[in-house]
Each structure stands twice: as structure tokens, then as C-alpha cells.
Amino acid sequence: MRQVAPGIAVAALIAVVVLGALCAVLWRAGGGSGLGPADYAALRFTVVQAILSSIISGLLAVPVARALARRAFFGRSILITLLGAPFILPVIVAVLGLTAVFGRAGVISTALGWVGLPPVQIYGLHGVVLAHVFFNLPLATRILLQGWQAIPAERFRLAASLGMGAGQVARVLEYPMLRSTLPGALLIVFTLCLSSFAVALSLGGGPRATTVELAIYEAFLFDFDLGRAAVLASVQMGMVAVAAVVSLAWARQEGFGAGMDRAIRRQDAQTPLLITQDIVVLLGVSLFLVLPLLMILLRGLPGIWHLPLAVWLSVKTSLTVVLFSVIIGMAASFALSMAAVRIRWLEGIALLGIATSPMVIGTGLFLMIHPFDAPSRYAMAVTVLANALMALPFALRVMVPEMREIYSNYNRLSASLGMSQGAWIKLVLWPRMRRVSGFAAGLTGALSMGDLGVVALFASPEQATLPLQVWRLMGAYRMEDAAAAALLLMVASLAIFWLFDRGGRMDADT
Predict the structure, then answer these.
(1) Top-tier CATH class for 1-24+307-510
(2) pLDDT digit string (tens) for 215-226?
(3) CATH topology assigned to domain 44-207+253-298
(4) How far apart, in whole angstroms, are the C-alpha atoms of residue 393 and residue 385?
(5) Dist CA 205 CA 202 (whole Å)
(6) How many helices (H) and strands (E) does the chain have?
């Protein structure tokens, strides 16, 4: 009971914050309102683009993660970090990079014009799906890569001693792992795409490409119809709940037993054909993901040393938010992970953080605080809490499978030795959770660094974070300064992710 009590408390707090904010909006609106034809069209588009984005991201992530798992080469750790960059970028910054590559005046359209072909059309359904694949392919790849690394090296050595080829290894070892890992990755991507806002706003191309999140934004901004916004948010939560049930029903918990934590050597993947295949996959995905980042670098570098003082001061504010978000987020993730081993449905509670519109959560918190004090006084505290809440599902997605494997392999042995809870965590749990915990902390920190959500509703001019400063510079049409600040934000997010991720993998095989 001591192991699950903290996790239950965290789950209860999440439910109170999210559902309390939603109820506050409904109470202020005097109840919900009906949905119109435009709202149903937004629901259909949201589901279609989320399904397409999650399926394409998952199908592409499998060969990429497999190639990274079975190849050791110079610069591999740097490549893994760079492949994670798109997911941790602020959306508006990444969209600028994508349009610089795939837009009508982008690199690809320019190259097509040289040979007399028409330019690429990035706006509409295919543009939204393209952007979502760009953002979520790295996340799905890292989740699946953790699954490959969880297979003990001894299983691959045994397969090699039995003369198994790549196809037999895939059927016996890799496919069962994917059955337990891939559904969770698809669920996370699907949920993220359901709550898409900036991508649809930037690349949707018109009313026919409106998502639920964008419809909520329009209900707030243009109509101030809180009831309609709350109903749309409730429908969005319902869709995520259905996706979670389907994912849990599809996934199977496969156990491979314990190993001796040795480095994995893939004897089955050393044929020239497979080596060439992996090289092509890694080169292709690197070009797709890194080229937009390079365009951001080229556009922002000239003005980096001429940024106003307010931008540099906002870096300090953002780093403070990141530090406390990581501390709170990782404490909550550990507690929920330990509890989810025994109470599986607790993991689904964390999805409330991304299942509910950030605008609804921010507005609900505003309404809850306003009768008692000025909300701006609590801007940083609320921002830290919101950031930790939004990052929690991603942290759990990489931590819970590893936690379950550790409990399955070592819990009975530790109990037979009479190990205390503290000794169990120090000697057994933490050494094996360190790698995935570093990755989860890196995600939490980078997402917090790039968040532009609740802080935009609460913050005063003196409390601006770096993403808020970028947004303000863009609103003032200071595009050179905005590009340079966006580059600074990208570098800071990558550095934070790398520091935590590298810290978790230090002296451990990756």
C-alpha cells in the first residue's frame, strides 16, 4: 500500500486540477450549449487527421527505431538527440522551419521550379498531417527505441546461437515487444494530434481544416461562448478516453525476463542488405527532420547578438520554470509509475493533462483564482504546475513499461531477501530506471522551456518567458528579432533535453 499511496494522491490531484478547471468554465457559462454543423465538421477533421498522423508516425518510427537499436556508429548519441529536436521545439518555431522547406517559396518548391514542376502545396489536410509527423515521429521513435533496449542482450545472443535470421528474431522477440509498446506510442501521438491548435491555425488553410482545439479558441476569442468551449473540451476528453481503452485492449504485456545489463549485439542484422536498409532509413529520416532545423538556424543566426535585454532576462525566467517543472513532474511520474504497476488504470489519469484543452484549463484556473486574488501573482506557480501536468503522459509512457519489467523480474527476489523500500529503490529500481528517467526529465524540461500556454493568460510583462517574448516580437512585426529569439529558444530546448538525457545515460549502454 505504501508503494501505491503516493501515486493515488498524484492521480487525485490531476483529476481535481483538470476537472475542477473544466467545471469552473461550465459554471461560469451557466451550463453547456449545443454544437453546430461547423463543430461536427471540426470533430470529423480532428479525428481523421489524428488517425492519419498517428498511423504514419508509428509506421515510420518502427524501421527508424529498429535501425538505431541494432547499429552502433560514431555520432549515434548526437543523432538520437537531433532526431528528438522537432518534438521539443515550440510549434510556431517549427512551423516556420517547415514552411521554409515545404512552402511555396521553400527549398523543395524552388528545386521543383528548376525542372518545371509546380510548387508543393503545404496547406490543408496533408500539410497538417506532415507537420504532425514531423513533430511526433521522433517521440514515437524514442518510445519504441526504449522498448528495443528493454530486450535483454542474452535473448539476442541465444537467438544467434540457434541460427535465427532477422525474420525469425523479428517474430520471436521484436513483434511481441511492439505489441506492448507501439499502442502506447500511437495513443500519445493520437492524443497530441487531437489537441492540435497552432499547426491547424498555421497550416489548415481554411474552415475545412479546423480542429476541435481551434474551434475552442474561436469560441473563446470571437464569441466568448464558454458553454460551447466547455462542451467541445468534454467531447475531446471523451475521444481520448476511447483511444485509451482501445490502446489498452490492443496492447499485451510481454515479458522477456531479466538480463545481466550487457550491451546488445545484433548478429542477425549484419547482412549487407540490412545494413544498407538501415543506412537509407537513417539518412532519409535525418534529412526530413534536420533540414527545417537548419533553416531556422540560417534565418535566426544573423540577429542573435542584437537581441534586446528583455529576451535575455526571459531566459532566466524560463530556466526557473524548467527547474521546478522537472522536479515536480519527475516526482509525480515516479509515484504514478510505481502505482501503475499494481493499478494499471492510474496511468490513464495522466492523459487528462493533454486530453483537455490548455485554454480551458487556463481559463478555469483564472476563474478559480480571480475571486480571491490577482491571477498574475500566481503566474509562475500555475505555469510550473501546468507544464508538469502536460509533460506527465510522455514521461509515463517511457517509464511505466520499464517499471513493470523491473517489478516483474526483481520484486519477488527482493522481497525474499527482506529488502526495505529504500534499499529496493536505491539498489534495484533506480539503477535500471536511470536511463528512461533521464529521457523523461529531458522531455519535461524541453517541453516546459518551449511552452506558450497558461503563461500567456497569466503572466505580467515582467514575468515573460522566452516563448512569450518570441510571440510578442512576432506580434510587433520585429521578425528578425523573433527569428533570433526563436533560434535561442531552440538551442536552449535542445541543451536542456541533452543534459538530462545524457545524465540518465551516463555510463549506460544506449
Answers:
(1) mainly alpha
(2) 877 776 666 677
(3) MetI-like fold (1.10.3720)
(4) 14
(5) 7
(6) 24, 0
